[in-house]
């Protein structure tokens, strides 16, 4: 039902300094959509192949587009303009990846492939870059809703106590 992803040869892309651009519907990215208030809209991506100074194949990935996050205070929808560019270095396999020293925060190393899934890459990058606790600067109406829901669900304990006390008083007076 959903369109197939796009694959690239990451090593060839770097070698030929190729640029690839495209768009993907947010709803097409299932893991990301599950984290959002709405999966409307689309993300644009641009991939620029690079050979780094020491000869490593790499690419700059830019992703941008509007996302609707879930505000962690009011559970409402929070518009968020995502725009991020990151450098990725392609390594040959998991073994090489795991043997790399963790020194360079500027560059992420990932396992390259002759058939690298672009949508998965874009999706991983967005998920890892989202704010951990997204919040409105100022929550609007939904907070009021939240309060009234709480009030309706749980009876006020003081009202319950008062009712009990009144019952007791009544029965005392009656006996
Ligand atoms: Zn909010």
Structure commentary:
This protein is of the alpha+beta class. The chain folds into two domains: 133 residues, no CATH class; 36 residues, no CATH class. It is built from six helices and seven strands; from the N terminus they run βαβαβββαββααα. α3 links the parallel β5 and β6. It is elongated, with a radius of gyration of 26 Å. The termini are far apart. About 6% of the residues have low confidence. Zinc ion binds next to loops.
Question: What's the arrangement of secondary structure elements?
Answer:
Layout: E1 7-8, H1 10-15, E2 19-25, H2 30-33, E3 42-51, E4 57-70, E5 77-91, H3 94-99, E6 107-111, E7 116-117, H4 118-129, H5 141-153, H6 157-174
Parallel strand pairs: 5-6
Antiparallel strand pairs: 1-7, 2-3, 3-4, 4-5
The protein binds zinc ion.
Mean pLDDT: 85
How many strand units? 7
Distance between the termini: 75 Å
| SS-based class | alpha+beta
Order the strands across the largest sheet as they lie in space.
2-3-4-5-6
Q: Per the principal axes of the C-alpha atoms, what is the gross shape? A: elongated
**Could you describe the largest sheet, including whether it forms a barrel?**
5 strands, mixed
The proportion of residues in beta strands is 25-35%
Topology order in helix (H) and strand (E) letters = EHEHEEEHEEHHH
Q: Portion of residues in helices?
A: 25-40%
Enumerate how many helices there are, as a single number. 6
């Amino acid at each position: 039902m959903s369109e197939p992803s796009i694959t690239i040869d990451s090593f060839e892309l770097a070698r030929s300094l190729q640029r690839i651009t495209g768009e993907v519907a947010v709803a097409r990215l299932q893991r990301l959509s599950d984290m959002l208030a709405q999966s409307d809209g689309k993300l644009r991506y641009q991939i620029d192949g690079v050979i780094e100074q020491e000869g490593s194949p790499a690419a700059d990935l830019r992703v941008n587009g509007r996302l609707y996050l879930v505000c962690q205070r009011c559970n409402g929808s929070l518009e968020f303009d995502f725009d991020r560019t990151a450098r990725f270095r392609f390594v040959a396999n998991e073994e090489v990846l795991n043997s790399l020293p963790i020194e360079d925060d500027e560059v992420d190393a990932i396992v390259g492939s002759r058939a690298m899934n672009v949508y998965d890459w874009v999706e991983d990058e967005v998920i890892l870059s989202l704010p951990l606790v997204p919040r409105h600067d100022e929550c609007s109406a939904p907070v009021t809703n939240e309060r009234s829901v709480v009030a309706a669900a749980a009876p006020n304990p003081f009202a319950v106590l008062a009712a009990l006390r009144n019952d007791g008083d009544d029965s005392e007076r009656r006996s």
